[in-house]
Amino acid sequence: MNHLKDVPLNKAYLLLNHGPSTIVTSEHEGVANVMAAAWVMPLDFDPPKLMLVLDRNTWSRHLVEGSAAFVIQLPTRQQAELTLAVGSSNGGEGNKFEQLDIRTSRAKQVEAPIVDGCVAYLECKVISEPHNQEKYDLFIAEVVAAYADERAFSNGRWHFPSDELRTIHYQAGGAFFATGEAFQVSRG
Amino acid sequence: MNHLKDVPLNKAYLLLNHGPSTIVTSEHEGVANVMAAAWVMPLDFDPPKLMLVLDRNTWSRHLVEGSAAFVIQLPTRQQAELTLAVGSSNGGEGNKFEQLDIRTSRAKQVEAPIVDGCVAYLECKVISEPHNQEKYDLFIAEVVAAYADERAFSNGRWHFPSDELRTIHYQAGGAFFATGEAFQVSRG
């Protein structure tokens, strides 16, 4: 069953606004990789942009520099073990998808695999900023496609139907928080 | 009672790693302001750097450009109403501290007020990057002092003792999530 539904691009920032941890996939010349990334956030609304900090010592960095594209996906609490596993190795040229038995599909607008079972996907094209990339390991990208699991995100809001589908927030050393209780505040 | 305890600078990123919403304070030539900011994240470990997206139409932007400094603080669930209130107005030259009856203290390393009752503070000096500031409203800064409420953060980990002291994650339209359940994942 596929619960993925397109998210309008001018609402894509809402997928990341609450600061969840992410998984990054990328591919260049037929070689793909996957890694965890906690340091991802929105940069602009429309057209949507986001930022990703991508260490120069990772294989994914090499792929993203080659392809100028990547996909940010939001793993669920069920996928926390997977998130830690893909994050704990820089991978080299080894195939983490095979080693960890990760099921994937294909992205729509960029050439890259996506990890099945995540609750949101943001396909991104890098905006070339050599100074930021070299000095800060910082990549700025435009979001060119966004879609989310409609059980967890619809009408521009997250509303997690179960603990298993909650997004997660990485602390360190294998410690995570689940996205917690929703509450509403009114403007004085 | 003051529960604030210094956080070693090389651990300061752990205050922000889980993606909480923040409040930004700044001051220039004796004029101070306060606003909410969801788009803040770490950029480097040691010396610690972070990034803040600061819209050009805000009064705080004017102050930060003048002083090259600001303070990021993490409001608690108890302060969600305050967070929404300071975020919903760009302030102009009005004094939001007085209008909203916000109690403040002084930062240690930079010239700015800090909002009392937050669970973490990161005092920052801007690293001048005119291209990023002009093109993307993006400010990169070095964290020069960090301290946190030791009831909620100690030994490099968040461990919220009560719902009231939990950090918060902004969605939109007054909707927040509290930082949720902590869980530990082991490396395969």
From TrEMBL, chains A, B:
Keywords: Flavoprotein. Coiled coil: none annotated. One of its GO terms (molecular function) is FMN binding. Its cofactor is FMN. InterPro entries: Flavin_Rdtase-like_dom (IPR002563), Flavoredoxin (IPR052174), Split_barrel_FMN-bd (IPR012349). The keyword DNA damage does not apply. Pfam families: Flavin_Reduct. SUPFAM superfamilies: FMN-binding split barrel (SSF50475). It comes from the Bacteria. Residues 14-160 form the Flavin reductase like domain. Belongs to the flavoredoxin family. PANTHER family: FLAVOREDOXIN, FLAVOREDOXIN-RELATED-RELATED. This is Flavin reductase family protein. It comes from Pseudomonas denitrificans.
